[in-house]
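Entry 14: structure prediction run for Electron transfer flavoprotein subunit alpha/FixB family protein. Input pasted below.
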Amino acid sequence: MPSALVFFNELSDAPSKAQRELLTLASRFDRATLAVASEVPQSAQDVVSGYGVDKLLVAPGNDDVFIDHALSALAAAVKQSEADVVLVANDNFNREIAARLAVRLDGAVITDAIDVSADLVVTKDELAGSYSAQAKATNGTLFVTVKPNSIEDAPQPQSQGQQLEVQPLDYEAAATPAIRIVATEAKAVSDRPKLTEARVVVAGGRGVNGDFGPVEDLADALAGAVGASRAATDAGWISHDAQIGQTGVTVSPQLFISAGISGAIQQKAGMQTSKCIIAINKDVDAPVFEIADFGIVGDLAKVLPQAAEEIRRR
Ligand code: FAD
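Run finished. Output tokens:
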């Protein structure tokens, strides 16, 4: 029966939703090891043991914001755990680590996965979710980057209170790092929840016509996150981090409000698993209405402020 290794660059007091999903996936395997490239607080260790993780490998902390430290830590963890499959998040940082190590260790890498079975068959969506493909590695350690919101977070009740074996990672830092930081600058951090973890997402598209104010205001009234279509991020109206879809992030909130977005297949690929979708569009034939639970045909510049006002009044 295959064994799994989950890798996090860091783990705070409360594991994030994406991290809990990876731990849930790992619990399907015969043995599950978690490796973290920095110190792990006791409170996080308690949560991790509730997911049936057998062993925690911890590397010493490091200020390296680039990839060298994490790469060396994961290379050591793969060796120490003898895992058959390595599960990491599907962000740029982890995709790079997975790809580089798969090459270095003569293994295989599959990105954008939405599921991995206990016999190592990886499922991923193709063509913006029109097809689902199953793939299997033919050789070496398998590295899989798993899309957030693909796996239902489910701690293992039988593992609660289970003793977690904690070991230091037998870690060798790169003698001469390939990259050295010459300066850092702190940027303003948003108070809003993380887009991939928010219970409510309000997203705007080309229809906002350059003004994300009403979208942001409704998101704040609902304590939600702000997302966008590619047309809006390409136009420079909002950061590319906010892009939802095939080439952006995948979200699966309780409530998704789509404003001025037509509902192209590549956009739907990133939000169609939302529990409730409300679409606001002035075109009654917009494809987004095909997947919406509730639709409002109207001008977002009028609908969004009215909605925010009504929510704040209650
Ligand atoms: P449009 O399609 O132009 O739609 C704007 C909508 O706003 C229209 O329906 C219009 O009726 C409505 N509207 C206009 N004014 C108002 C108003 N005042 N009030 C209400 N409604 C109004 N797109 C993504 O979003 N994410 C991706 O990850 C992504 N990846 C892609 C990958 C590939 C390989 C390709 C080829 C494309 C990708 N796209 C992606 C682009 C995608 O095909 C669409 O072009 C894009 O989603 C369109 O964005 P939009 O809906 O905001 O704009």
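Notes: The mean pLDDT is 92. Will compare against the previous run tomorrow.
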